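Review this fold:
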Amino acid sequence: MFDGAGQQGLQRSHGAARVVMAARDGRAALRDLAQSGSAKVFLPRGGAVDEAVFLNTSGGLTGGDRLRFGFDLAAGLHFTATTQTAERAYASPGPEARVAVDLAVGEGARLDWLPQETILFENANLHRQTRIALGAGASCLFAETIVLGRLAMGESPAAARLFDRREILRQGRPVWTDALRLCPETLAARESPALLGAARCLAVIAFVAPGAEDAAPALRGDLAAEGCDTALSAWNGRLILRLCAHDIWPLRQQMARLLTRLRGRPLPRVWQMNGDIA
């Protein structure tokens, strides 16, 4: 029983996790790892590919939460970073939840940043910014997926808010910038073909690397996929794929197919893709 008329403050989740990988005998070696609050990072052992797995132990994001992930990769290395599970943006009765992702890729290195999907629930309010800084000759493979509610639960958020900005720079100069904004006004009109149409799930894949456009011909045969619309553009060291679907499973299958082609190796184990993606 609380006494008095004062309003009780709600707890907010704050977390930050950062990994710095150095080169040792031509392989990645942990140089620094810092984590606090709800943000954690794991470095699985025994796999064929070097990987880092980020995790938000709070179980989701709501108003006033703050989450920051960072990764620095030394020159010449190839590394994959992902998240352990889908991120959930829950109702925010107060201020927005904020997420910042800052990645730095050294000269001639390659980082695959492949987080799992973000699910927006009714009245969610999420502001996220992802920034990838590439050194000379460096490359990155980036993927991001947004899901509007859970189809199996009959959810169709009408009052969610999202501002999602993605930026890739090379030696300090922007080479690709993408921003997505969802709000009650756009969700109310989302049946328009100029907006989401019938889609409830949407994703973007960006491959930025010297000669990235050369990978386009091998992908064109994979663009037609049942239950998922896919578009591709490629120019001047950039290859961009955009996907949308009514259900998350066909979209995940298509993303797994395309990402596997671009990587030349399987997806991180935490993605748990157990179907045929050939």
Q: What stands out?
A: Residues 248-263 form the longest helix (16 residues). Residues 14-264 form one domain.
